[in-house]
Design goal:
single chain, two-stranded antiparallel ribbon, 34 helices
């Protein structure tokens, strides 16, 4: 551009200052700071003096600039400056300081372009004040103002204060206007995608199709201006690093879009987690479900905008297609969505709103590191033990979370790692079976069950029967006792016909391998009985019945005979008394939480010991004066449960 070498650019950001007084003072001081550098010392002194005088006269500035913009003639501006000067006093008045600056600028060999952007982002009063300042005290030789604003918004602000002026107000101030055409939607989308790529990174090929579907259905409809691109990019730069890798990139981009452009819908989604994740749908007529979802999720949205948002929410929460398009998904899709850590999965829902993982979910980096070293038994054991020692805020340990994640990602475990991984888990399975991870009322599962679920996906679904046998028999050699009993009896049960001669599902092991596992477990149980280890196992009664099952025919007599021999030992009697009394949970009508109860199964007592002989030994122990309170309490629980007329049912 001709003469560009003599052009000095000055940026003034009015949104840094709040209020008319601060804006007016800042305007002239910023102007003086940038322009004064190129002026003689006398003009610089005049700029500083003018800034001081305007600063001390801030209550009068608004009046001055209002007077200055009543008309377009210089007399009005001069009158305004004189008003301020007369009030301030001093050696030179404001008009005299202004004149010194004007003469210096007029003779300067430079021109100054002052850029004031985003005027439409200011309040109506602040925007009007900037226009007035430019017209009054800011009117100087060789100083040009480039003011950037949305004309429609600015004219509306003017009309709000001066209804009779409207567009005419701007015409008195703006000498040349240039209308910029709106950007092409494709250009905005391309710009946003480039920005998103720089923040989120490369999207994997197998997820690109869904990413773009989400982008066009959820994100693109909300991007109308460059400012929208900047807002969303700025938000992602702050929030994405906190959850990177632990959420689905497409879903996170979509949820951030809703948070910025549809905050009321974003809040409604958060308030209705169980609805959008699919736990409340499928039990009411389609029309009723549609109205129900509209009311809870889109109640604040105008009717004309609802179709776009319905399409967006169905893209993110497939369960809503049940209500809005009468479309259903099978259970297999849920497995895939969980692997992808989608927002529609309840376990992965919260990080999209809290920008942090809950302790109910393992970080993706932790899972990836574990799977990369799944063939290292020492690493597997150490990692699970550390997880077992880490309590979760709502109860349970991180070991349960890690086992659940392994189950869902079992298809991704390298085949060469399956055998060492299974062996490592078998070797510490009894340690993992902790009370903290056992299910309470209205939930199912414990860590033994989680290991069984893992075996289903890791061994049964992935390996042929010969390979399964090899993996299981190798792992069984170092398996803990209780788990060895459990897995051996599972294999036995799977080979037994349960209905019309058919077996129950795909067996974990062959008939031959099952027989060897059963024999190994039985040998270990009988050795534990001889060594006195068996009596110290948790849930002793259950283990005695499992010993019976491992023996098969004649097992009940063998176990009963062994116990009869042991009843002279007080420790055995006390262990049986504790184990005969079970604890359960009930939930009566009107109860908010479950109620704990104790349960005595008289049939178990009769099956394992002579009840009269056993109770006689109980009485002998209770009369001992040296019996400590803890041991006495456990035996008293048995006696109290036995004495109730409803024993074998429930009792508190």
């Amino acid at each position: 551009m001709k003469g560009a070498e003599n052009l000095v650019l000055v940026e003034f950001n009015p949104w840094w200052f709040n209020g008319a007084d601060a804006l007016a003072i800042a305007f002239f001081r910023e102007l003086g700071s940038a322009i004064g550098k190129s002026l003689p010392d006398k003009a610089k002194d005049a700029f500083r003096a003018l800034g001081r005088k305007l600063g001390s006269a801030s209550p009068l500035i608004e009046a001055a600039v209002n007077l200055a913009t009543v008309g377009t003639g210089g007399a009005a501006a001069g009158g305004a400056a004189k008003l301020v000067g007369d009030v301030l006093g001093g050696e030179r008045t404001v008009p005299e300081e202004h004149a010194i600056i004007a003469r210096a600028l007029r003779s300067a060999d430079k021109r100054f372009l002052v850029i004031i952007d985003d005027l439409d982002r200011l309040s109506a009063d602040d925007a009007l004040l900037i226009f007035k300042l430019v017209k009054s005290v800011g009117r100087l030789p060789n100083v040009i103002y480039l003011m950037v604003f949305d004309r429609a918004l600015t004219e509306a602000a003017v009309a709000e204060r001066f209804p009779s002026e409207g567009a005419h107000f701007l015409e008195k101030i703006v000498q040349a206007a240039f209308e910029l055409p709106p950007p092409e939607p494709d250009d905005l989308r391309s710009l946003l995608l480039n920005n998103v790529g720089s923040v989120i990174g490369v999207i994997e090929d197998d997820r690109m199709t869904r990413f773009m579907n989400v982008f066009y259905d959820v994100v693109a409809p909300n991007i109308a201006r460059p400012r929208d691109v900047v807002r969303l990019t700025n938000a992602l730069e702050v929030t994405w690093p906190a959850v990177a890798g632990d959420v689905d990139a497409a879903d996170f981009l979509a949820m951030e879009t809703l948070r910025l452009f549809w905050p009321q819908v974003h809040r409604a989604i958060y308030d209705n987690k169980t609805l959008v994740c699919g736990h409340e749908l499928g039990f009411e007529p389609h029309a009723q479900a549609e109205a129900h979802c509209d009311a809870r999720l889109l109640g604040s949205v105008p009717e004309g905008q609802r179709p776009t948002l319905r399409r967006a929410l169905m893209r993110l929460f497939p369960a809503l297609e049940n209500a809005w398009s009468n479309h259903y998904y099978g259970a297999d899709f849920g497995q895939e969505w969980r692997l992808q850590r989608r927002v529609c999965v309840e376990a992965h829902f919260d990080p999209y709103f809290r920008f942090a993982l809950s302790d109910q979910v393992a970080p993706a980096t932790e899972i990836q590191a574990f799977m990369a070293r799944a063939d290292d038994p020492d690493f597997v054991r150490e990692t699970l033990r550390q997880a077992l020692a880490t309590a979760r805020r709502r109860g349970g340990t991180r070991a349960a979370v890690l086992l659940d994640e392994l189950t869902f990602r079992a298809p991704q475990v390298p085949e060469a790692s399956i055998a060492p991984l299974v062996a490592a888990i078998f070797s510490i399975a009894d340690e993992l079976d902790v009370a903290a991870d056992k299910a309470g009322a209205f939930s199912v599962g414990d860590n033994f069950l989680r290991i069984h679920w893992l075996l289903n996906r890791l061994v049964t679904e992935r390996l042929e029967i010969d390979d399964r046998d090899a993996v299981l028999e190798a792992a069984a050699q170092t398996a803990t006792l209780r788990w060895l009993i459990d897995i051996a009896l599972r294999c036995v049960a799977q080979l037994e016909p349960v209905e019309e001669g058919r077996r129950c599902g795909e067996p974990l092991a062959s008939t031959e391998a099952t027989a060897r596992l059963r024999a190994l477990a039985l040998a270990r149980v009988q050795a534990a009985a001889v060594e006195g280890v068996l009596i110290g196992l948790p849930d002793l009664v259950s283990k005695l019945f499992r010993w019976r099952d491992l023996v098969g025919e004649g097992g009940a007599e063998r176990v009963r005979a062994w116990l009869t021999e042991q009843l002279d030992d007080d420790a055995v009697v006390e262990a049986l008394a504790r184990s005969f009394v079970s604890v359960g949970w009930s939930h009566s009508a009107g109860d908010v939480v479950a109620r704990r109860y104790t349960y005595l199964d008289r049939g178990s007592v009769d099956a394992l010991v002579d009840p009269d002989a056993f109770r006689a030994r109980i009485s002998e122990i209770l009369v001992r004066e040296d019996l400590d309170p803890g041991r006495r309490s456990a035996i008293n629980d048995f006696e109290a449960a036995w004495a109730r007329p409803d024993r074998g049912i429930f009792g508190n």
